[in-house]
């Protein structure tokens, strides 16, 4: 078997690799230099934009500068390693496969563009507390692909930027103050004006409740077992920990204030009426009342009443005389 052809091919490949090796080593050195240079450019951009109020713009510009420097480094490295490669050939290659690449990376490009717009418009910022659908927490990072939030129970949620850009997002810390509310029920025999006055006094005495806007207490419902009064108060800052702390102290103060002045705090009650649903006409759909209370007029008796009446009628009926047997003839 003749291996000369294969040997010549392997020998030629080895010579080509040795000829390419200096360019390959030099290209790697150049790429590493661009990698460090990209980090330096990112730090430089962050230093120039750190005095701006828009933290999102700072993040966006530094990341774009980093990515642009890396892309330039890759092009220079490929040009060094493969001298026949030119940017024009890259553009022509992208033109051929651009449609396929666009379909393959549609979601990635969509999230990237949404991330850029979120960083520019800043509907929310880092450390803001937001709510999106069933997720609520503190914004940890806004990346070009997704935004990560830390939930209040210590979990991380990664949300694609396109979702946050298209759908509604509640920013709980967008403003410096926030209003809280809670419904409290008092008895129907209690004086509403007195209860409202006591509730407002209790809220004003709680540390952290703002005097302006002033606390309020308004009647919102005449419920089945109570008159519901809604207590409303404002706090600053509006973060989750402050909300829970303020609500704890306000509800404790209101409860103690109302009970100390004899205001009833009733719990829900139910009244159950028991009656006989069985009637003589059970099975007759035209007259059966299905357990509803008897109305005026001719109402069928219940089965118990009918049976009682039958027993009474049997007791009141006179006994019928029994026929006497004929006497036997004398022997």
Radius of gyration: 43 Å
* Average pLDDT number: 81
Ends distance = 150 Å
Percent strand: 15-25%
Structural class: alpha+beta
InterPro entries: LSM_dom_sf, MS_channel_C, MscS_archaea/bacteria_type, MscS_beta-dom_sf, MscS_channel_2nd, MscS_channel_C_sf, MscS_channel_CS, MscS_channel_TM-2
Main location: membrane
Family: Belongs to the MscS (TC 1.A.23) family.
Protein name: Mechanosensitive ion channel family protein
Provide key terms for this protein:
five-stranded antiparallel β-sheet; alpha+beta; three-stranded antiparallel β-sheet; SH3 type barrels; single chain; about 325 residues; elongated; Alpha-Beta Plaits
Note down, in words, how this protein is organized.
One of its GO terms (molecular function) is mechanosensitive monoatomic ion channel activity. Residues 107-169 form the Mechanosensitive ion channel MscS domain. There is one protein chain. The protein has 331 residues and is of the alpha+beta class. Among the domains are: 13-83; 117-171, SH3 type barrels; 178-260, Alpha-Beta Plaits (2-Layer Sandwich). Helix content is 49%, strand content 15%. It has a five-stranded antiparallel beta sheet. Strand 7 and strand 8 (227-235) form a beta hairpin. Helix 1 (4-49) runs antiparallel to helix 2, helix 2 (55-81) crosses helix 4 and helix 6 (192-204) crosses helix 7 (240-260). The longest helix is centred in the first third of the chain and has 46 residues, at 4-49. The protein is elongated. 14% of the residues are buried.
């Amino acid at each position: 078997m003749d291996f000369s052809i294969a040997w010549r091919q392997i020998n030629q490949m080895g010579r080509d690799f040795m000829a390419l090796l200096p360019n390959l080593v030099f290209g790697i050195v150049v790429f590493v230099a661009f990698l460090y240079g990209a980090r330096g450019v990112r730090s430089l951009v962050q230093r120039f934009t750190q005095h701006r109020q828009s933290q999102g713009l700072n993040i966006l510009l530094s990341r774009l500068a980093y990515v642009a420097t890396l892309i330039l480094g890759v092009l220079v490295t490929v040009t060094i390693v493969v001298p026949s490669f030119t940017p024009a050939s890259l553009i022509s290659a992208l033109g051929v496969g651009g449609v396929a690449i666009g379909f393959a990376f549609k979601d990635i490009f969509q999230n990237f563009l949404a991330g850029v717009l979120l960083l520019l418009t800043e509907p929310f910022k880092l450390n803001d507390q937001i709510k999106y659908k069933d997720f609520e927490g503190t914004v940890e990072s806004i990346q070009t692909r997704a935004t990560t939030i830390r939930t209040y129970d210590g979990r991380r949620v990664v949300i694609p930027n396109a979702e946050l850009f298209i759908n509604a997002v509640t920013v709980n810390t967008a403003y410096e103050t926030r209003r809280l509310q809670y419904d409290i029920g008092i008895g129907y025999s209690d004086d509403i004006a007195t209860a409202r006055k006591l509730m407002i006094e209790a809220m004003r005495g709680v540390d952290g409740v703002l005097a302006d806007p002033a606390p309020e207490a308004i009647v919102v419902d005449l419920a089945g077992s109570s008159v519901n009064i809604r207590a409303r108060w404002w706090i600053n800052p509006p973060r989750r920990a402050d909300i829970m702390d303020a609500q704890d102290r306000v509800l404790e103060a209101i409860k103690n204030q109302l009970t100390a002045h004899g205001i009833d705090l009733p719990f829900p009650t139910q009244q159950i009426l028991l009656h006989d649903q069985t009637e003589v006409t059970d099975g007759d759909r035209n007259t059966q009342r299905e357990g509803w209370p008897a109305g005026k007029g001719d109402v069928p008796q219940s089965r118990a009443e009918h049976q009682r009446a039958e027993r009474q009628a049997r007791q009141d009926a006179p006994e019928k005389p029994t026929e006497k047997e004929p006497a036997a003839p004398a022997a």
